[in-house]
Amino acid sequence: MNIYTRTGDAGQTSVIGGRVDKDDIRVEAYGTVDELNSFLGQAVSFMDKGCFEDLREDLLQIQHELFDCGSDLAILQKGERTFKVTAGMVDALEVWIDKYDAETADITRFILPGGSKASSALHVCRTVCRRAERRVVTLARTKEINPEVRRYLNRLSDLFFTVARTANFREGVSDVEYVRSAEVFKPKS
Fold first, then answer.
1. Per the count of CB atoms within 10 A, which of 95, 102, 132, 174 is most buried?
2. Which residues form the Cobalamin adenosyltransferase-like domain (predicted)?
3. What pLDDT was estimated at residue 166?
């Protein structure tokens, strides 16, 4: 089997249920999710297996779920296939957010992205995730989508923020507070 097909040479690509232009907002949305998945793979590669085994396993599961998001976004017309992303997947993200947040100290101010390599890479994932969410919101204005994908990406960016802080904590690196920030966060209850 050849990796190249030549079918996209004229500027179109196949989606589930037809073909669209390669710059279609649908392709932009699932392409940004794919980009996020690549950055997530890079972030995981910066994590020591001993210190981050649990987190690495959770993030690998998220990589599979990001493929599910892309698959759902590639469905041209409802009824072509059953959606893969579910409310239960969003609920699971919330459980992980709470679990990893419990490891970190309270913050009261905004923090700057950075710290350890793993934390920095996870902050990149957070920002790319937000861009993917924006692309999905744009797509949903004109096309029917699985609304759980939008919810999933919204929650996932919160998880990336949390695990970026967890990565710094586990590696003994302090988060850097934004010095011009007022106190905007309440302590954990």
1. 132
2. 3-167
3. 98
Using one digit for the tens of pLDDT, what is the confidence trace for 101-126? 999 999 989 999 999 999 999 999 99
* DSSP string over 35-92: HHHHHHHHHHHTS-HHHHHHHHHHHHHHHHHHHHHHHHHTBSSTTSS-----HHHHHH
Give 129-157 pLDDT, tens digit per residue.
999 999 999 999 999 999 999 999 999 99
Q: How far is CA 158 from CA 11, 83, 84, 105, 163, in A?
A: 35, 23, 21, 16, 9
Number of structural domains (the chain) is 1
CATH (domain of 150): 1.20.1200.10
